[in-house]
Amino acid sequence: MHKARVLVITNRKGGTGKTSMAVNLASEYAARGRRVLLIDLDSQSHCAIGLGVPQVRGAASAQGFLAGHNTMREALRPCAVPGLDLVPADPLFNHGGSGDTSNALGLALAAEGLLADYDLIVLDTPPSLDGLLLNALCAADRVLVPFVPHFLSGEGVRQLARVIFRVASRGMNDNLKVLGFVPVMLDARIGLHREVCEDLGQQFGRNRLLPGIRVDIRVAEAFGRGKPVRQHAAHSRAAQDYAVVADAIERLWISV
Asked: Are 163 and 136 in contact (CB under 8 A)?
């Protein structure tokens, strides 16, 4: 029986390019012919902005599902990217209202037939450790961690690793594994960037350190125009880098 892969993109620290990674990887896989669902669990609701999906006050949302107001399927919104659908976030959501059940999202993906309808489900998450992040970790197969290569971000990665280990080791999601770590806003000419990447590679395994996303203003430009970077600037460094990361994920998914 067909079952979608579920990838959660997360970091306990904000400003690490999670949403850019989610929007652009989801778009990249959709362009390759996959059926992709992007679920925005971060109430900043930036996935909708990055994909040019109008935000409607009071509409069904990922947070609305967790609060018991709508089903996940009721929240599905089509995107301008063929093959990609979005479950948007609610920018007015109170994070204290995400419910007490950490496996609600995972159960709904199966019960509502979304695992059968899609090839890949990408979960964008808030940086806070709350019910939204725990639901994402309990629903996912693999974790992808974008990080800005400086020391504070490295510590955030280590904190997140402890959370993931706790979820995986306490029976909340026995199948959860860290797929890899992706440096973003990377400039290999900067010694600190190389040093932080090397340290994380030594700590978590060099095979889990994926190719980086280089600094490129095209990413911000694309977000401002409500498009993934591959549509806005197909030949840009960032578009090339996201494609390389997508290739690396394919290679690693089975082996990790």
From this structure: no
